[in-house]
Structure formats: C-alpha cells, structure tokens
Design a protein that fits this description.
This protein is mainly β. 7% of the residues lie in helices and 34% in strands. The chain contains four helices and 20 strands.
Length: 266
C-alpha cells in the first residue's frame, strides 16, 4: 500500500496509452484518460488503476468445463475419476505432446476412448491443437488422439500433428460415431486396416474438417474428413465455414490455420 492505495495502482503522472474503459480513479478526483499516449500530471498524490488491453494469460474456462493445458492432463481423460469420458473439456493452449514418444515403453500416448469405454463427452479445442503426438499401436484397434468417439461425443475446433500407427486409425479420431467439426490433422497415419488422415472409420458426422494428404499419407475421400494437399491447407478458402478473424487466422502460402490472437502476436 502507498498512501492507503494498492501498490499496483499507477500514479497519474505516467504515460499511456490507456482508454476510458481501463480507468478507475482514486483520491477524490475524476477524469478521462485519452486514447493516445500522453503524460498525466496532478498536484496531489492521486492514483489510477489501469488494466492494459491484451489477451489473458489464463483464458477463461467456460462454466462446467475442465481446462486442459498439458499432455499429461489430456491423458487423464478416461483414466482418472476427475476426468470422465462424458466430461466437457477445453484446451487452454497448444499442447506439446513430443514427450509421448517415450511413453508406455515406446507405444506412446494411449488413445482416449475404446470400444468398451468410448468417449461420449465434448472437447472444444478453442482453436488450439496437440502437436507432435506419438502413438504406436501396431496391430491394435482404435488409434488416434481419440480412439473411439461414440454417439453424443463431440470433438471441435482443434488440430493434431505427429504420427499415429494402428488399425482403425486416424490422425485425430480412430473410430467416430459422434461429431467432429472444424478440425484438421497433418500427422503421418499408418495402419494395415481401415485408416484415414483425420478419421479412420466414420459412422457419425464429420463437418468442415480436413487433413493434409501429403503429410498424412492418406487420400480417402469418403466422408472421414476432406483430403487436401499441403498447398490447399495453406489457403483460407479451403476451410469452408470456419470463423476466420474471430477464432482462426492463417498466413496463406505459409502455414496451417492457427488461433487468431496467437498468430496476431507473432
């Protein structure tokens, strides 16, 4: 505290820029901070609390949702009572999954959901993705970030990169009876039986979702995600119905879609 005011409050004789929505005045004065940088002075030791306009360090978690910020947390889904298969999950940032290459004696990440215990919840990536995912389940069914998504399960607004091996294998979902929307995958997909760049086997709904035929090694256009070349995946026009300018952005001819404010800061 300084003169009975919180120490994080700024003295008026400092420079902006700040806008009127950022101000809370103390010391019995009032005023308007201008929209452009300027020095504000006062004859008394008055203070004003200021909040800069910037993306939050900790994004808000929607009511009822469980936030996921690490690959270890993601692996808890279906493996910990606090992370049930019917839960509502949101990604809070891009998740680095490169460590999964050494998990489970080289088998990597354990896919979320199986035939016996399918994923029936919701995962909203909020524009974030899981990168460098490694899954080597050769000879095993239901390989993907999600092994088996049942009716009522939803995976939306996310992407996955890395390498996935198995049967009934997909870059994002092995078997889908639920809903996949606004997603894409770019990781290598390898399997002897039923595979796809995004979804391995689909008897649900896949909408506005895509995979890179060049990097996944897959080219099946049977409702399991739209196959596109790398060049096409670098074009906004490819991603029909996606909310560019609000959720997503893209540097055309250079990269895949990314989260809007994340790319704006680069």
């Amino acid at each position: 505290m300084i003169n009975e005011y919180p120490i994080n409050h700024k003295p008026i004789n400092v420079s902006g820029p700040w806008t009127t929505q950022d101000e809370t005045w103390y010391g019995g004065v009032s005023g308007t901070l201008k929209f452009y940088p300027e020095t504000y002075t006062a004859s008394k030791n008055w203070f004003v609390a200021l909040t800069p306009s910037a993306p939050p360090d900790d994004p808000d978690i929607p009511e009822g949702a469980i936030g996921i910020s690490t690959i270890e947390q993601l692996q808890l889904i279906g493996n910990d009572p606090a992370y049930p298969l019917d839960g509502y999950y949101v990604l809070l940032n891009d998740i680095d999954a490169s460590d999964t290459e050494t998990w489970n004696d080289g088998a990597g990440f354990s896919p979320i959901g199986s035939y016996a215990t399918p994923f029936i919840g919701t995962l909203d990536g909020q524009g974030y993705g899981v990168t460098d995912l490694f899954i080597d389940r050769s000879g095993e069914n239901y390989a993907g970030l999600f092994g088996y998504v049942s009716a009522g399960g939803t995976v939306t607004n996310c992407y996955a990169t890395g390498a996935v091996t198995g049967d009934y294998v997909g870059g994002l979902v092995g078997v889908n009876y639920g809903t996949v929307t606004n997603c894409y995958a770019t990781g290598a997909v390898t399997g002897d039986y039923v595979g796809g760049g995004l979804v391995g086997y689909n008897d649900g709904t896949v909408t506005a979702s895509y995979y890179d035929t060049t990097t996944t090694g897959q080219a099946d256009n049977t409702g399991k995600g739209a196959p596109r070349t790398t060049a096409a995946m670098y074009q906004q026009a490819t991603f029909t119905g996606w909310d560019f300018g609000v959720v997503w952005t893209i540097i055309e001819d250079t990269d895949y879609p990314r989260l809007e404010w994340e790319s704006a800061g680069t």
